Amino acid sequence: MGTKRFGPFALLAVLALILAACAPAATAVPTQPPAPTEAPQPTEAPVVEPTQAGPEQGEPYRIGAFFSSTGPVSSLGVPEANTATMLVDQINAAGGVLGPDGMLHLLELKMYDDQSDPTVAVEVVKKLIEEDQVPVIVGGTGSPQSIGVIETVTAAEVPFISVASSSAIVNKPDGTQQTWVFKTPQQNLPVAQVQLDWMTAHGFTKVASLGVNNAFGADSMAALRTVTADAGIEIVYEGTFEPGTTDFSAQLTSIAGTDAEALVVHATPGEGAPLTVQFRDLGLVIPIIHNHGIGNRAFIDTAGAAAEGVLFPIGKLLVAEQLPDSDPQKATLLQYAADYNAAFGSAPSTFGGHAWDGLMMVKAAFEAVGADSAAIRDYLETSITNFTGISGVFNISAADHTGIGKESLVLVQITGGNWAYVPPTDYANVP
Amino acid sequence: MREGDLPHTRTALVHPMTFTDQLVQFFASGVTQGSIYALIALGFVTIYNVTGIVNFSQGEFAVIGGFVAITVAHKISLFRGNAQVALEWPLPVAILIGVAAAVIVGSLLYRLGIQPARQASTLSQIVVTIGASIALRGLILLAWGTDPYRLTPFTSGAPLRLFGAVITRQSLWVIALTGLAVIALYLFFQYTLTGKALRASSANPNAARLMGINTSRMGLLAFALSAALGAVGGIVIAPITFMTYDRGLMLSLKGFVAMIMGGLTNPFGAVLGGLLLGVVESLAAGLLSPGYRDAFTFIVLFLVLLVRLGGLRRRGASAAMAGL
């Protein structure tokens, strides 16, 4: 082992650094092995000949759709594609859509898989517009895929209803709305407003905020800053962690050193679960409230007992059965859950609900104005009022192409390994 | 939330923590994490001493050990839900199976990857281990996916208090098992015939062969031993920081840094290097910014390589001469 052996080591050290530099890129995009069996082919709705007498049969109405059925966001895209197929089958089985011309029109679903890739998304949208000549498009599972096609649909003047959540999908930099783009998932701001209502109910004045260092976490943390500043609540600690982090000892110890009365976490189960476990292990007794990112079973399964008592705002689908009967969405939510379960043998997800909203808005537009792109756009902007959907009760306007606020969300507490609905009157009593 | 309301509520932390308490807490977290680096570094040193190879699959052994133990001890679905495993065997059995799985993988790596390339240069053999680590990570991803998984803590119960800091029982397991591993390794190398044969192959392979020691079997033994050390690290930390498919790379790099800090050949140096690295990281993350955690590891690596490597190594080498 002479001195000449150091050459390789210096080389290895450099190699180590290069590998380390590459590491975040490898973790930032969680890769899931694609499951070819789940990849739906471009689907065409089965053409069902209606048997009942009644209105005359018109030309089928085409709907364009593209979801990420494969790739990293396929866990969101698969229920969306499933929902679209299910709804079109349902509508066609009932004879189709009764158009403004007094004729029944079957729906023809032109659906493609964008493979979670924004470039592929643009390609399939061009195909939908030029080859399939669809009058309206629903889809764009992830925010990058949705944002990527804005230019294409705007140039072609085809209305597009996105199922992704980023506010940049409908908001132009100058604050006005994209003319041809709408979206169904709620923004992060109403989520922060529900968190604020809960803080106000407790009379908290100091909170800590800890979020994942990506677009989702940054947007959610910014929303919390906005609402707390207006309400006079001080964020005494604000910290971030990289996607894929599982050791939060440094951040949590720093939070323990502040006089925060609650911890707000902006994460998905991958980081949210270990964070919650370590929060409990450290013996911190302040309440912990997450955002809608942890709204799936994986969080409860992974965090186990530590998940008990965790609060988070989310769309109503998760706790549909527990909602009061007076809730305007309850019947719609239960019907969707039952239909989805019957068709696919599993509970529907919030993401499938976003596709439900988009498809049903298109159906309403077809009934009112037929298959004309410009007329559909105008209808969506002016006539989607008190529209009871899965993600909320929509009131879309020229100034707001999302159309749902904090009323579409509920506060949920994890109790006994399950989600429990918390009525607004009980905010002060949880956890 | 009142204390005792919920099953998980344990000893309440004095809140807010004073700065001194926080320092103790950072130190305790650092020692816990550093113990894992120490175990990985011990694996590096063992293989390096016997074969002259730096094995960059070392971190993957920890991930395999952790995941196999989790799979045996819990209900879990593999291959994207295509396989359901619900063994739920007792934890000690799961730990043994986890270690055994890593030992098998380590042995296979030596037999199929290193031994066929024994005529190649050391550097080529090191590249083989890098390739193996990438392949293993891919296989782990296929089987377990991207979700983090947790192993049940070894013992349940309230965390302990130390000067205002909170130390979980699992942290104590981590520190205790690392200590045990160091002592066991020392006794093995010092007092058993096989251990002495391993040291002989390391000190002078040709002479060892002339004395009838099968050096290739010693290489196999070194890989198996290192895999076991790595697996223990991966299993014992899984209840605290969970296990994810991509942990191996960082564990390997940090173990490598700890090994260099300890002077390449010295097991005790590697353990000290690992602990020191853990504490430096924890303090940097806590006092500066969590984003600097990994940056500090590599700053330490640079400093050691540029300034102190010669000195550290000389001391390491003399320690090795003195019997590891």
Q: Concise description?
A:
Chain A has helices spanning 6-28, 74-93, 118-130, 143-148, 150-156, 188-202, 215-231, 249-256, 269-281, 297-303, 330-344, 350-369, 373-383; strands at 61-67, 97-98, 104-105, 107-113, 137-139, 160-162, 181-183, 206-212, 234-241, 263-266, 288-290, 311-315, 387-388, 393-394, 409-415, 418-422. With 431 residues, chain A is of the alpha/beta class.
Explain the overall architecture.
- The complex is a heterodimer of chains A (431) and B (324).
- Chain A contains 13 helices and 16 strands.
- Chain A folds into 2 domains: 37-48 and 55-183 and 330-391, Rossmann fold, CATH 3.40.50.2300; 188-321 and 409-429, Response regulator (Rossmann fold, 3-Layer(aba) Sandwich), CATH 3.40.50.2300.
- In chain A, the strands form 5 sheets. A 5-stranded parallel sheet of chain A has the order 4-1-5-6-7, sandwiched between helices.
- Mean pLDDT of chain A is 86; it is low at 22-41.
- Chain A is α/β, with parallel strands linked by helices.
- The radius of gyration of chain A is 24 Å and the shape is elongated.
- Chain A has helices at residues 6-28, 74-93, 118-130, 143-148, 150-156, 188-202, 215-231, 249-256, 269-281, 297-303, 330-344, 350-369, 373-383, and strands at 61-67, 97-98, 104-105, 107-113, 137-139, 160-162, 181-183, 206-212, 234-241, 263-266, 288-290, 311-315, 387-388, 393-394, 409-415, 418-422.
- Chain B is mainly alpha-helical and 324 residues long.
- Chain B has one domain (19-321).
- Helices cover 71% and strands 4% of the residues of chain B.
- Chain B is built from 11 helices and 4 strands; from the N terminus they run H-H-E-E-H-H-E-E-H-H-H-H-H-H-H.
- Chain B has helices at 19-51, 58-73, 91-114, 122-144, 169-191, 193-203, 205-210, 215-241, 247-261, 267-288, 293-321, and strands spanning 75-78, 83-86, 160-162, 165-167.
- In chain B, helix 2 (58-73) crosses helix 8 (215-241), helix 3 crosses helix 8 and helix 9 crosses helix 10 (267-288).
- At the A-B interface, helix 1, strand 9, helix 8 and helix 9 of A face helix 1, helix 4, helix 9, helix 10 and helix 11 of B.
